[in-house]
Amino acid sequence: MANERKEQLKNQGRLLIRCEDQPGIVSAVSTFLHKNNANIIESNQYSSDPENGTFFLRIEFHLDDLNNKRQELEKQFSEIATTYSMDYRFTYGAERKKAAIFVSQEPHALVELLWEWQNGDLPMDIEVVISNHEIAREMVEALGIPYHYIPANKDIRKEVEAEQVRLMEQYDIDILILARYMQILTPEFVERFENRIINIHHSFLPAFIGARPYERAFHRGVKLIGATSHYVTNDLDEGPIIEQDIERVDHRNSIAELKKIGQQIERRVLARAVKWHLEDRVIVEGNKTIVFQ
Amino acid sequence: MANERKEQLKNQGRLLIRCEDQPGIVSAVSTFLHKNNANIIESNQYSSDPENGTFFLRIEFHLDDLNNKRQELEKQFSEIATTYSMDYRFTYGAERKKAAIFVSQEPHALVELLWEWQNGDLPMDIEVVISNHEIAREMVEALGIPYHYIPANKDIRKEVEAEQVRLMEQYDIDILILARYMQILTPEFVERFENRIINIHHSFLPAFIGARPYERAFHRGVKLIGATSHYVTNDLDEGPIIEQDIERVDHRNSIAELKKIGQQIERRVLARAVKWHLEDRVIVEGNKTIVFQ
Amino acid sequence: MANERKEQLKNQGRLLIRCEDQPGIVSAVSTFLHKNNANIIESNQYSSDPENGTFFLRIEFHLDDLNNKRQELEKQFSEIATTYSMDYRFTYGAERKKAAIFVSQEPHALVELLWEWQNGDLPMDIEVVISNHEIAREMVEALGIPYHYIPANKDIRKEVEAEQVRLMEQYDIDILILARYMQILTPEFVERFENRIINIHHSFLPAFIGARPYERAFHRGVKLIGATSHYVTNDLDEGPIIEQDIERVDHRNSIAELKKIGQQIERRVLARAVKWHLEDRVIVEGNKTIVFQ
Amino acid sequence: MANERKEQLKNQGRLLIRCEDQPGIVSAVSTFLHKNNANIIESNQYSSDPENGTFFLRIEFHLDDLNNKRQELEKQFSEIATTYSMDYRFTYGAERKKAAIFVSQEPHALVELLWEWQNGDLPMDIEVVISNHEIAREMVEALGIPYHYIPANKDIRKEVEAEQVRLMEQYDIDILILARYMQILTPEFVERFENRIINIHHSFLPAFIGARPYERAFHRGVKLIGATSHYVTNDLDEGPIIEQDIERVDHRNSIAELKKIGQQIERRVLARAVKWHLEDRVIVEGNKTIVFQ
Questions:
Q1: Is C115 on the interface with B (CB under 8 A)?
Q2: N or C: which end of chain D has fewer CB within 10 A?
Q3: Minimal CA–CA distance to B258: which of B240, B246, B242?
Q4: What pLDDT is stored for residue A8 in this prediction?
Q5: Claim to verify: residue A12 and residue A73 sit in the same structural domain
Q6: Where would one find coiled-coil regions in this protein (chains A, B, C, D) (predicted)?
Q7: Are residues C116 and C169 in the same domain?
Q8: What's the total number of domains in chain B?
Q9: Are strands C39-47 and C97-103 parallel, antiparallel or unpaired?
Q10: Which of B200, B215, B223 to mutate to test binding with chain A, by most A CBs within 10 Å of its CB?
Q11: Quick check: A239 and A206 in contact, CB under 8 A?
């Protein structure tokens, strides 16, 4: 299964564009791809405003022998990009993103990611798992993934992050997934990996920002609880939201039961957000995301 | 349909009990009902804590010729109530609650209530509709319901509420439904009708407390929007939640579209909350509700 | 509100294309629109198969003074259409579709359509309501819509349909909405309005095809009930599905309650399906639909 | 976590009753429990019909030193049971049900069960996993659970089932969970374990009974897909439904994607159904279930 998908992805490219909305963009881009014999598999566009808005385009294309044609393709496109003042990026199915997963004491979100990844449903290489606990070592190492135990608390935050940054560099990490990692990150760390750190928050944001959301949901008496996956910024739990989901609860549910139900939501919400990120479907615009599903 | 339901409700009673959790309550109550030839139709119970908690019981029962037996039944029960220090209440299907609906400029929630009420699905008598706009007069009067236009703004709040209280008394109102009534109520007004004012808030509380929730949801970039029906207290949008629901949205939805989608949620959430209140299924405990569905 | 939307739609056109998937289509179409100064507002595409599939494209565009440029635009496009052997169609926001609504004894779906239409959310002209009952006459005529009572049963089907066809012609009807119209239509009638008759079936198809789905759902003990909106074909309840939705139920729900819950689902499912049809978002392909949301 | 729950369950009993609906049952049962110093933790009741219906009661109670009082409790209750002609059963939290899981080539449902079980959320002892494939051996044996590979096909069904029955007896199995086990069972086998075999069917039953439901859902063009957990009877996919759930899909989803989405639904639906069964919340009545949540 996984091998089959890799084969499929080999000649698949994606072109992501952001520019001022103006006439002729789709025409120019699609004509460029056509002339280069690339076949459009999927195309999504969005304009933030019909007048004077920003235009976003994601095109997935197939091109035989893509690997040998990449350089020429990118070179040719740079002219169009200049004409329309585009902010753009090509990515290639053949190049899997390198991921680091951070986890603390609750392994449910990590377990889900590992499972989806084993199934071939998350096209990434998990290079390393980092934790301030030993709890998940066995299951991670059983899959041949290095596990780094880095004890952490707020007094040694700098040293901890220095070690983490070193590992991110060593493994050349593209995406950091916080799968219920319960430590605050410093602004320096967050800026270094802007729009590349995905967190799962255990509430339906912006409700219950901060600590102990299930306790607070219980005491507020909400009838639905949720989870939110978002990019990490320096405003706690205020980063751009990628995905959210909820489940129904009622007065009978204890805090422990809310947590249990919530873990199920967290698992699927984080897995979806990571998948969309890996497929370059998520574009951050200001403090919001465009998700081209 | 409606007549058929009225007939069904004629010999139907409900007994609502709150007391300290202690052994023997269910035994005492069910034995009492059995001795009085009342047949239990539905029974729901909840204890806030297995140890030293508060116990809640709602029993719906059928008793032939109930109307003539009510006094005797209540008299007999008062002894059990004393024994267990119960806070309790009998209500009768034959006695429909008298409702006042308050509305401002957006009639969608009112329309839904009127429609469900015409279908016989909301067992109440709508005695009066009060609005600070004239927009809904025609549809309300067409159904034979008095419509009172009371212009309102914060400078004349006292006079407005004096008139509203007068109408509540005139019509002997049991339940006030704020079907998108966009005026703040004074603490005096709220206290007068404690746990009898049901509001529909146009967000998934506690997210987006206060004004313009759809605008704020848009700018926050949430992926789900919701609505919340709750009892009104003097903490704005902080009263006990009765019901909530959500719908999925995405980056393509404008504020206007969020409002439109939100109106659909508001309609059904308010209608459900009102129905459960009318059937005495909602018990307020502290700032939470127990909803015996 | 409604007037504002009409103004917005005045210079808005849609181009719907179906053809063999082949390189260059998007390039050709977008270049054509660009040269004609049309601005793409929304664009959706789908290919039934990456190899040898059928390609579908829906483009919504804005063009100043569209009404005066339509003829020229269509003329020019016909050349592209010939080159790529396209099956295509232009539609215009200024031209609202003319609708006939058919209803029998249960008016809930009709009520929802009328309400959404009054709000300006369903861009159609309701030319006529046809019913084999008198139940909805008052509410329909109150909105200035002609109401035709045509008693119907299987013995007089031909005469009934002859009268209905006459009305469809008289009012120049584009879309027939069966809002719980409980009569079988003949193959002749269905063929005459191919892919233009939208029905709401009161089950989650293909479960419970045919009569009395709520009764059968009750006896089967399903834990969710649903509704399905579909185009009518000559295979009963087998036409292309446009939209479906469900609600959770349990053992406590009587058949009457399932019907009641189901009506809520039917209302929103039909309203969505009609809206998407009116906006030319639904494309029938074989016995399936592509819905470009 | 798991140990804590076991401790909690030690003095917890459940009493399940089915009898003709008649006055005084709740009074008699609750008085009996009260006299025996048992504290009611949760109580659910249902009557199939207000008149001449069948009455169902599930009471969860706490009684100190329950293990030593069981015999006396059961003996005393037998008198009440005789008086009301009750069909009844006591179960005890201290006695975990013994489970066998059957699986074929797709391990996703098994993985979910193992995970929930490791978390302490499924109070059962998994005695054995049986499969006609070797695919899941490693993960099962890693948890210390015996794995029996029994190749199967329709020609050797009798021999296969003889071996399976032998294992069920050897391990004294209470519940058989078919976690995507793709072999038909004989009537003899099914009867032997009546209402004790739980299956997960990969469609929203009664839609797509039988083989290849995702393919058929794809070709029918449904807009939602689902999964159904039910007790196995000798009518294929017609047994009493315990739980169902759905997810939204659209025209873009391939059969492979429907399967993938469906697996997520299957995982959670089966886990819920098994949990409710283990907690004695599911009562089979005719071909339907009462689920006391």
A1: yes
A2: N
A3: B246
A4: 77
A5: yes
A6: 56-83
A7: yes
A8: 2
A9: unpaired
A10: B223
A11: no
State the pLDDT confidence band at B1, using cuts at 50, 70 and 90. very low
Clarify whether residues B108 and B63 are in a common domain: no
Same domain, B181 and B121: yes
Under an 8 A CB cutoff, do D205 and C221 touch?
Answer: no
Of A65, A92, A119, which one is at a domain's C-terminal end? A92
Residue numbers in D near C46 (CB within 8 A): 251-252
- Find the closest chain B residue to D57 by CA distance: B43
Beta bridge partners of A60: A14, A42
Q: A143-152 burial string, b = 16+ CB within 10 Å, else e?
A: eebebbebeb
Residue C1's pLDDT is 47
D121 carries an active-site annotation: no
- Is the same domain home to C156 and C38? no
Q: Could C289 and D244 be called an inter-chain contact, meaning their C-beta atoms sit closer than 8 Å?
A: no
Mutate to test the interface with D, among B21, B29, B31 (most CBs of D within 10 A): B31
Domain end marker among C34, C68, C92: C92
pLDDT at position A4 is 66
Q: Are residues A226 and A146 in the same domain?
A: yes
Taking only the tens place, the pLDDT of each residue in D259-290 is 999 999 999 999 999 999 999 999 999 999 99
Interface predicted TM-score of the whole assembly (ipTM), two decimals = 0.94
- A114 to chain D: nearest residue by CA? D111
| A-chain residues near D119 (CB < 8 A) | 108
Q: How far apart are the first and last CA of chain C?
A: 22
Q: Which residues pair with A43 in a beta bridge?
A: A59
Residue A72 C-alpha from the chain's centroid:
29
Contact A183, A152 (CB under 8 A): yes
| A125 in the same domain as A23 | no
Task: Flag whether pLDDT at D236 surpasses 90.
Answer: no
Helix (H, G, I), strand (E, B) or coil at B157: helix
* 3-class DSSP assignment, residue C38: coil
Q: B42-46, long-range: CB within 8 Å, 24+ apart, which pairs?
A: B43/D26, B43/D43, B43/D45, B44/B292, B45/D40, B45/D43, B46/A251, B46/A252, B46/B290, B46/B292
Cis peptide before D206 (omega within 30 of 0): yes
Helix (H) or strand (E) holding D97: strand D97-103
- CB-based contact C247:C226 (threshold 8 Å): yes
Helix (H/G/I), strand (E/B), else coil: B189: helix
Average pLDDT over residues C121-127: 96
- Asked if B45 and D40 come within 8 Å (Cβ–Cβ), the reply is yes
Q: Are D188 and D160 in contact (CB under 8 A)?
A: no
The CATH number of whichever domain residue A51 belongs to comes to: 3.30.70.260
Q: Catalytic residues of A, which ones? A: 237
Residue A246 structural domain: 97-291
Q: Tens digit of pLDDT per residue, chain A (293 long)?
A: 456 667 778 999 999 999 999 889 999 999 999 999 999 999 999 998 877 899 999 999 999 999 999 999 999 999 999 999 999 999 999 999 999 999 999 999 999 999 999 989 999 999 999 999 999 999 999 999 999 999 999 899 999 999 999 999 999 999 999 999 999 999 999 999 999 999 999 999 999 999 999 999 999 999 999 999 999 999 989 999 999 999 999 999 999 999 999 999 999 999 999 999 999 999 999 999 999 98
Subunits that touch chain A (at least 3 Cβ pairs < 8 angstroms)?
B, C, D
Q: Which of residues 222-251 of B touch A (CB under 8 A)?
A: 222-224, 226, 240-246, 250-251
Quote the pLDDT of residue D219.
96
Q: Which residues of D71-109 are buried (b: 16+ CB within 10 A; e: fewer)?
A: eebeeebeebbeebebebeebebeeebbbbbbbbebbbb
- CA–CA gap between residue B282 and residue B242 (Å, rounded): 7
D247-263 exposure pattern, b = at least 16 Cβ within 10 A, e = fewer: eebbbebeeeebbbbbb
User: pTM to 2 decimals?
Assistant: 0.95
The Cα B119–Cα D170 span in angstroms is 60
